[in-house]
Write a structure and sequence with these properties.
This protein is mainly α. It is built from two helices and no strands. The longest helix is centred in the last third of the chain and has 16 residues. The radius of gyration is 29 Å and the shape is rod-shaped. The N and C termini lie far apart (104 Å). The model has no long low-confidence stretch (mean pLDDT 76).
Length: 60
């Protein structure tokens, strides 16, 4: 018996679309990431966590 030669071809259009989608993921509508805004929120959150506790009234 002679071996049967097979060739495999990939659909290049579909693969190109898949690669393009992986390289440029779409963001959800209405969700935008601004690095300056994220940094400001992170600093404000850290400042609130590191702030001293509010003074309590003295009993007496």
């Amino acid at each position: 018996m002679m071996p049967v030669e097979t060739t495999r071809t990939l659909p290049t259009e579909t693969m190109a679309d898949d690669v393009e989608a992986l390289l440029n993921p779409a963001e959800a509508d209405g969700t935008f990431r601004d690095s300056a805004e994220c940094a400001l929120l992170l600093l404000a959150g850290g400042k609130a966590l590191l702030a001293p506790p509010t003074p309590r009234p003295k009993k007496g």
